[in-house]
Write a structure and sequence with these properties.
mainly alpha, 2 domains, 54% helix, rod-shaped, nucleic acid binding, zinc ion binding, Znf_CCHC
């Protein structure tokens, strides 16, 4: 069996082969048929294969096919759930970096502050406590601290 093809369709092909063997007059016990189908499961089904092998209650071919169909449906639904999230994470991760509409703002001031290329420094909107000027913080103020202290006293 192959991982690339649905397991149920491959099991149906095996059933046709087993039916042809029975049509030729040879007899195969149902437990042998179940064991043969389990043994032929693809490598991606290794854990489920071991689970079926260690099952204490014997099952017939119909019960096996029901279990395989349920397992395949579960695997397909899990694959559908996880596949879009991976793509969505990549889009979010690279969204701003590769956005053509947004043009990077670069000025001499940003490069003096050691800002990396492609990063943006958001402009401060509040009032400076040092000089009472608008548009920068006291930590970024160009006036010396003494000027502020002199203003507070007077």
């Amino acid at each position: 069996m192959l991982d690339s093809k649905p397991v149920i369709s491959q099991v149906q092909e095996l059933q046709l082969i087993l039916h042809d063997i029975l049509a030729e007059g040879m007899t195969l016990s149902e437990s042998f048929q179940v064991a043969a189908i389990i043994e032929k499961l693809p490598s991606a089904w290794k854990d489920f294969k071991n689970y079926l092998k260690h099952k204490r209650k014997e099952m017939n071919v119909e019960e096996l096919i029901v279990r395989l169909r349920i397992e395949e449906d579960n695997r397909n639904s899990e694959r559908r759930l996880f596949t879009p999230n991976v793509a969505k994470a990549n889009v979010v991760e690279h969204g701003d970096k590769y956005n053509a509409k947004r043009k990077p703002r670069s000025s001499g001031k940003d490069s003096k502050l050691g800002a990396k290329k492609g990063t943006f420094k958001k402009k401060f909107v509040g009032k400076c406590y040092n000089c009472d000027g608008m548009g920068h913080k006291a930590s970024d103020c160009k006036k010396p601290k003494r000027a502020r202290e002199a203003n507070d006293r007077g």
